[in-house]
Write a structure and sequence with these properties.
- The chain is α/β, with parallel strands linked by helices.
- The chain has two domains: about 120 residues, no CATH class; about 230 residues, Spore Coat Polysaccharide Biosynthesis Protein SpsA, Chain A (Alpha-Beta Complex).
- It contains 13 helices and eight strands.
- An eight-stranded mixed sheet has the order 3-2-1-4-7-6-8-5, sandwiched between helices.
- Helix 2 links the parallel strand 1 and strand 2.
- Helix 2 packs parallel to helix 3, helix 6 packs across helix 12 and helix 11 runs antiparallel to helix 13.
């Protein structure tokens, strides 16, 4: 038990001291020097049954204070709820800024969102913009966001400038699981490493990705990630060899999609958790065992062991709690949530196992009625 406790503590010391300071949440969106010229940008919004939120997304994009040419392409991915009409209504006063593309039938070998992105790119490239802004249909932007994104991209010659949008954190389920979702993402992909040209770590957040057109073309376009379920990180991995990329936290951009119930959170995580493990049973087992040792063992040792093992277990739990506090503060939640991280991690372990189970039942990657994981070629 002493060895287990010592190993858990050693892991947490490494995580806080040697993994890019991911837990400090220091990588934030900043602006670069104001450029002399403002390049053309086209926003691309893949949308499937997003009538409730797409109007707010369109309105916030049309309210940008950007000085260059800017337009929006919305790809209506065979929606059944009037998504296209909601978008047009939101853009009624600036109809020339919005183009609505009716999505074509999903071909084999493509995931749904990526296919919609591809159709948006084809339409956007007709105006030859220098940048493409990929955004989801539930994202609302502060008026200066695009200006800041482009200014930094120009100043640092970024091929990708992505923002981890602020997710909703109102319901009990959201308060319990959303900060941890960002915490775990930062642990997997430390933003400081993503932003370091000398490291191979690459990641992005799909809700807001400003991509340089020539860099996208150089990697083969969106088709290069046609079968990706976690499309944002797949795109970042393709783009990083082309030049610098950046991923930052932001409070200027937020998602208006809500997850009021635990079931809503479960569906969000189950959709892609097993894909992150490359659908590998071995990686699944290794992940569950590792999470149990890192998150659950310290609690068990602190509560039920004795002597040195108990002390080490308590220290590991304490370090874990301290590491969780900065992201809790970012979401304006009490630090009292910190000691609950092991219980939250247990929830994520259950959801990950459920994700693997859904995959075996040929329901992997289920999103708005569409199964997207690679089960018997189904997309």
């Amino acid at each position: 038990m002493v060895l287990l406790a010592a190993a858990a503590l050693a892991v947490w010391i490494y995580l806080v001291a040697g993994r890019g300071g991911f837990w400090l949440a220091w990588e934030r969106d900043e602006t670069g020097p104001i450029p002399v010229t403002w390049p053309a940008v086209v926003a691309i919004i893949p949308a499937r049954d997003e009538a409730e939120s797409v109007g707010e997304t369109i309105s916030s994009l049309l309210a940008q204070d950007y000085r260059g040419a800017f337009s929006i392409v919305l790809v209506d991915d065979q929606s059944s709820d009037g998504t296209a009409d909601a978008a047009r209504q939101a853009a009624a006063a600036s109809a020339d800024k919005l183009t609505v593309v009716s999505g074509e039938t999903l071909p084999g070998g493509w995931t749904g969102k990526v296919w919609a992105m591809q159709q948006g790119v084809v339409r956007a490239l007709q105006s030859e913009p220098e940048y493409l802004l990929f955004t989801d249909a539930d994202i609302v932007y502060g008026a200066d966001t695009l200006t800041r994104l482009v200014a930094r991209a120009q100043a640092e010659r970024l091929v990708l400038n992505s923002l981890m949008v602020r997710l909703g954190c109102a319901s009990l389920a959201e308060r319990a699981f959303i900060p941890a979702f960002v915490f775990f993402f930062q642990m997997l992909f430390p933003f400081a490493w993503v932003n370091n040209d000398e490291r191979a770590t690459a990641a992005a957040a799909g809700g807001c990705m400003l991509v340089r057109r020539d860099a996208l073309a150089a990697v083969g376009g969106i088709e290069a990630i046609r079968d990706a379920l976690i499309d944002d990180c797949a795109l970042a991995q393709k783009l990083k060899p082309q030049g610098p990329i950046r991923l930052s936290l932001t409070e200027r951009v937020h998602s208006i999609r809500s997850y009021p119930r635990l079931e809503d959170i479960r569906r969000m995580i189950v959709r892609s958790a097993y894909a992150q493990l490359r659908y590998s049973p071995l990686l699944l087992v290794a992940t569950i065992v590792a999470m149990a040792g890192v998150y659950l063992a310290p609690v068990g040792l602190a509560l039920f062991a004795h002597g040195v093992a108990q002390i080490l277990g308590l220290l590991a739990w304490t370090v874990m709690t301290i590491a969780f506090v900065p992201i809790l503060r970012f979401y304006r939640l009490s630090p009292l949530w910190g000691p609950l991280l092991p219980a939250i991690a247990l929830g994520y372990m259950v959801f990950t196992l459920d994700s693997a189970y859904q995959y075996t039942q040929k329901r992997g990657g289920l999103w708005k009625g569409r199964v997207q994981s690679n089960v018997n070629g189904a997309r």
